[in-house]
Amino acid sequence: MFGVAGAKLVGHFTGWETVVSPLIMLISIGFSGAVGVFFGYYPARKAAALNPIQALRYE
After folding, report:
1. pLDDT tens profile 14-36
2. Which of 28, 50, 55, 58 to pair with 15, CA 20 to 30 A apart?
3. How many Å is the Cα radius of gyration of the chain?
């Protein structure tokens, strides 16, 4: 919502036509969600495989 409002505001002040496509919004939300899931899942999976005693000893 803030992105759409920001694009419309900039377009209003600069005189540019702004077009916000729902398909592009869905693609961007899907991509950012996939990146968030990957970079959250991968380190958690790696940490879950560690032995807790060795992990604490490393610090």
Report:
1. 989 988 889 988 999 999 999 99
2. 28
3. 21
3-state secondary structure the chain: CHHHHHHHHHHHHHCCCCCCCHHHHHHHHHHHHHHHHHHHHHHHHHHHCCCHHHHHHHC
On whether the CB atoms of residues 10 and 18 are closer than 8 A, the answer is yes
Check if the beta carbon of residue 7 is closer than 8 Å to that of residue 20: yes
pTM, two decimals, is 0.60
Place of tokens 């939300």: 29
